[in-house]
Amino acid sequence: MKTAKIIMTLLALTFMVSCVDYYRMVTTLDRKGNVYRELYAHGDSAFMAGNNSRNPFLFDISPDWTVNRYDTAFNYNFFGNDENLNVKISKTTNSIEDYSKNIRCDSDMRSFAVPEESLTKRTRGFYTYYSLKVIYKKLQYEAPISIDNYLNKDEQLLWTQGSFDNYKAMNGSEMNDYLSEINDKATKWYARNLFEINLISIKKLTENYDLDRDKENIFIKWAKFLKFDTINIDPKTVCNVLDSFYVTTYFSKLYNTNHEILDNNFNQLQDSSFKINTDIFGKDISYELVVPGKMLQTNAPIIHSDTLVWQVDGMRLLFADYSLEAKYRIVNKWAFLLTGLLIVIAIGSIVALIKRKGVRI
Fold this sequence. Notes:
The protein is an alpha+beta fold and 361 residues long. 38% of the residues lie in helices and 26% in strands. The strands form two sheets. A seven-stranded mixed sheet has the order 3-4-2-1-7-10-9, with no helix packed on it. Strands 5-6-11-8 form a four-stranded antiparallel sheet. Helix 8 (235-246) crosses helix 9.
């Protein structure tokens, strides 16, 4: 069975990471679909001195990005966190799809650094309708126990992406209680996965005990007494739990005799099967979109005049793709001019026809 170094690691990184790299990305669309993009970050002293090998951005910025280094950093508020930014890169392309074509970055960072972006248009009469879609792909990993066993799809999106579409009827008190329930279930999910991973390494050295048969009952009994916010679920802890369940000292003795093997097996099992770059949980992007014309529909949580704002981080990609969507329309001036010209021609034709027939008007 493949296992994953997810649960405690990911959520701990998400909620407790002390060092976060913030990025502000501003994408401006013009009436023709051309795109101007700016990305802001904080560069260290080496990069600010011209050392591009200390690139603070998520991808290779050479050779077609223009770099601007600022002598004085400026403050920007990232969803309640004030951060200093001191470098900007910028680029103009003919379409938003062009950005991802030539970007080079680490493969395990690509889904976060290079989203799938598309802009489609449809002309109808006096207006051209545009539909923008940006998809940040779900992080790829494998867990012994699926989150689907603990949270349904709506709960997963509410917990990680703030999708309230199916919860709009709740008041603050009801939502608080519901989120507390989701938190408890998510915590049990990551505890259960760490328990499962530990069990895999322990049972390799175990004789005369059917851990696979009993593991459900073991965890259910153990979970009643757990404080998941403080527990450290490691091989030694699980061995003590097994002693309690089977009323024995077999497993604690097993750990004392083989603690190096058990610890190493546990770590190797995690490292060999966990296919995710945990650095993603130390990144936070403010994705800002400036559109021309009239906004018709969007799922952006923040709207400032003609600017739409989304927050993108690892937590939002933990259970599902994160889609950023916007629909807007632009007036076709040529359609109005053509219509006006046709009206003038029609009126002129009618007047000419009447005059030829000698009718007084």
